[in-house]
């Protein structure tokens, strides 16, 4: 019985998608358009971050000079702490 309900739900979903494609009206409401836009913006941001990480890992590892030490001073020196 449960298998039959699952199959009927799947058939209903497929028929809904096919009818939307045939009518060339994929989005029925503004909420459909908004959710579609948010989904693709999220995917775009994730892909952009992955590309930036790959660029950072691939390009910066090859271009580093081993002769130079990579120490930077951060902040200001507190001369009151020196003996």
UniProtKB/TrEMBL annotation:
GO terms for cellular component: membrane. Signal peptide: none annotated. The lineage of its organism: Eukaryota, Metazoa, Chordata, Craniata, Vertebrata. It comes from the Eukaryota. The chain crosses the membrane at residues 33-55. Keywords: Membrane, Transmembrane, Transmembrane helix. One of its GO terms (biological process) is regulation of cell population proliferation. Its main location: membrane. It is a single-pass membrane protein. It holds the Pfam family SMIM5_18_22. This is Small integral membrane protein 22. It is found in: Membrane. The keyword Protease does not apply.
């Amino acid at each position: 019985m449960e298998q039959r309900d699952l199959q009927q739900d799947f058939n209903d979903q497929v028929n809904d998608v096919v009818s939307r494609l045939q009518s060339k009206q994929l989005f029925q409401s503004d909420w459909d358009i908004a959710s579609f836009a948010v989904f693709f913006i999220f995917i775009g941001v994730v892909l952009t971050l992955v590309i930036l990480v790959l660029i950072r890992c691939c390009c910066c590892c090859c271009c580093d000079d081993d002769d130079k030490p990579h120490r930077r001073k951060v902040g200001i020196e507190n001369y009151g702490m020196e003996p």
